[in-house]
Amino acid sequence: MNRTQIIYSLIGVITLAVLAGVVLWSGVFEAENESLVPENQPAVSPKATSSSTNQTDKQYYGSSTIGQSVEGRAISVHTFGNADNHLLFVGGIHGGYEWNSVVLAYNLIDYLQANPSELPENIKVSIIPSANPDGVYALAGKTGPISAADVPADANPGGPERFNANGVDLNRNFACRWQPTSNWRSEEIDAGTSAFSEPEARVIRDYVQSHGLSAGIFFHSAAGAVYGAACNGQVGPQTKTLLNTYANAAGYRAVERFDAYPITGDVESWLTKLGIPAVSVELSNHTDTEWQKNLAGVKAVIKQFSQ
Predict the structure, then answer these.
(1) Where does 61-306 sit in CATH, by number?
(2) How many CB atoms lie within 10 A of CB 40?
(3) Domain ranges of the chain
(4) The whole model's pTM is what?
(5) pLDDT for 130-168, tens place per residue?
(6) In the chain, which residue ranges form alpha helices assigned H by DSSP?
(7) DSSP 8-state code for residue 6
């Protein structure tokens, strides 16, 4: 069975994303039995996570390692298409705490591989499925390579699994209103010793700065909404359009700015500082990928930027 399938069969929905796309050092979880695919749940194929390139008349696909985490785990990017309109999707910046965002990103990788005709010729899509692999491994209770049998049955999202191996919240480590401490709900959290002090944040920074982006979409959980971003001042018109396009198609609430509590140094706002529209897509809970909703949102954004 494939990664997603074996996780569902062994440990149920709660531990699905712990292993989907993040098992073994390269993030590959080899699967053996096709009979346990959950209904309406896209498969996560091993070939979607192996380093490769493929050139056909209709589509280019490539995957590569673009950096490493604190504990040396690979951070990969998967790219479809070869055009100037470049959309970046990122999952798992909050590690095991938001493990379903990792599964969602891998499902998107599989979908685009299985449906190359869905991508217009003038669109390139890149996906970083797990921006905080150490946080995902922390959920499984191990620091080294793991298999399905290693994942505890009572694994749950929360606690230190949100942070990287240095205890830093990566989504407070970017150069937009950065401060050494920030907030998560009512807690004061570590934002690093400086903006981009953490290797995972630098990986995203370097990728963004070396690849022209048209927009950035970051998967999170769990608020059931799409949030806009702005480093300073008001949310820009391009971000508003991106926000409403995704939210309306997916059926999430559209919220211009997150204001439940003050945050600093988030990656989405840093992208807007560079002139790149960016949004946070918050899934409704910590267990479901809400695949059909998010596929509709992704398709709507692709259509928006292809016109």
Answers:
(1) 3.40.630.10
(2) 7
(3) 61-306
(4) 0.80
(5) 999 999 888 766 554 433 344 344 455 556 689 999 999
(6) 3-11, 16-19, 99-114, 133-140, 199-210, 237-250, 267-273, 291-306
(7) H
